Amino acid sequence: MTTETTQSALLTTDELLKHWQGHRRLTRRTIEAFPAGQLFEFRIGGMRTFGELATEFLGMTLPTVRGISTGSFGDFKLDKPKSKDEVLKLWDEQTAMLDEEFPRIPLDRFGEKSNPFGAWEDTGLAFIQYAIENEVHHRGQGFVYLRALGIEPPHFWERD
Question: Which CATH architecture has domain 13-148?
Answer without folding.
Answer: Up-down Bundle (1.20)
